[in-house]
Amino acid sequence: MTDPIPSAGETTIIGLPAIQIPITTTGDRPLTQEDIETIARLAPGTALLISTRGAVSGSRYLLDEDEVTVGRDSRADILLDDSTVSRSHAVFRRVGDTFAVYDSGSLNGTYVNRQWVDHQQLRNGDEIMIGKFRLVFFTKSAVIA
Predict the structure, then answer these.
(1) Is there a contact between 24 and 53 (Cβ–Cβ < 8 Å)?
(2) Strands (E), the chain
(3) First vs last C-alpha separation in the chain
(4) Tens of pLDDT along 51-107?
(5) Strand, helix or coil for residue 140
(6) Which residues partner with 48 through β-bridges?
(7) How far apart (Å, rounded) are the C-alpha atoms in residues 118 and 2?
(8) 20 to 30 Å CA-CA from 67: which of 3, 15, 55, 78?
(9) Tens digit of pLDDT for each residue in 100-117?
């Protein structure tokens, strides 16, 4: 085991060039080049959720079914294992080429862009908060003009 490096007290900013990486609407976790390439390769009628906060930060979840369940239950399509998430918390539904999120009667609620919702159609860059987890929604059109 290695000993931790002692704190140096104050830190100094040195003149490194800025890195230009698109960020999510909340700025919690910048998108990586790999994220952008993955979004660009999405098939029509599919979407991607990228986790920006929580134990699974950086994880990606493909929405490629008509219904994708989210919850703490091990049978959920997207398992978010934390006490702030209900066993059956929410469902992502696809209708044509659009997706919406529906709360499943969860205790802590489902939020889109920090607003409590019972259900909400999703647009690129929308942030879905489920318990302490934040997931950002993208379709291919987010990177293809």
Answers:
(1) no
(2) 47-53, 60-63, 67-71, 78-79, 90-95, 98-103, 110-112, 115-117, 119-121, 127-130, 133-138
(3) 50
(4) 987 677 889 999 999 999 999 999 999 999 999 999 999 999 999 889 999 999 999
(5) helix
(6) 62, 138
(7) 49
(8) 55
(9) 999 999 999 999 999 999
